[in-house]
Specification:
By secondary structure, this protein is of the alpha+beta class. The protein is built from six helices and eight strands. The protein has two domains: about 70 residues, Alpha-Beta Plaits (2-Layer Sandwich), CATH 3.30.70.1710; about 100 residues, BMC (bacterial microcompartment) domain (Alpha-Beta Plaits). Helix 1 crosses helix 2.
């Protein structure tokens, strides 16, 4: 299966989330990447596959469970840094400038991180997805100050356009101790 696309549905209900996952897997030839409850009583389903299959799966589940949908996305040609950052295995050992974007939804945050890393030469450190965060999510990235500033602006714009941006920060010379708290 060609996996150049990812799609996500974030829901207000755990039961609706499990139903959405089942609908998505029965609708299209997609792979289940993440399927879990998140804070605060929400649920997320992340799938991968070719663009058409992912779009069909997300649309079909969203239409069937419209009452519980918080946010969705389909990202074609997802950047290769997204999955290691979600898993916390990016290999970043030294902080240059530090960028942080925080959003009210997992979906808007993953879209923001993809836009950020595609817009500038930065390295994603982590995508933290609504676990012990009251349902919010954030990403961190590092690189030269100008690149990090550009990436943070690009990512923040995606979340802000959906009305889901919490905050954005660029720290020019962060203390290295901050890295140990991230991953």
């Amino acid at each position: 299966m060609k996996k150049n696309s990812i799609g996500l549905i974030e829901l207000t209900s755990i039961a609706a989330g499990m139903l959405a996952a089942d609908i998505m897997l029965k609708t299209s030839e997609v792979e289940l990447v993440l399927n879990r409850s998140i804070c605060s009583g929400k649920y997320m389903v992340l799938i991968a596959g070719d663009v058409a299959a992912v779009q069909t799966a997300v649309d079909t589940a969203s239409d069937a469970i419209r009452f519980a949908v918080i946010d969705t996305f389909v990202i074609a040609n997802v950047h290769e840094q997204i999955f290691p950052a979600i898993a916390g295995h990016t290999g970043v050992e030294v902080l240059e400038a530090l960028g942080i974007v925080e959003a009210f939804s997992v979906a808007s945050l993953i879209e923001a991180a993809d836009a950020a890393v595609k817009s500038a030469n930065v390295k994603l450190i982590e995508l933290r997805l609504a676990m012990a965060l009251g349902g919010k999510a954030f990403f961190t990235c590092t690189g030269e100050v100008a690149a990090v500033s550009s990436a943070v602006e690009a990512g923040a714009k995606v979340a802000a356009d959906k009305g889901l941006l919490v905050n954005k920060v660029v720290i020019a010379q962060p203390r290295q101790e901050l890295l140990s708290d991230m991953i």
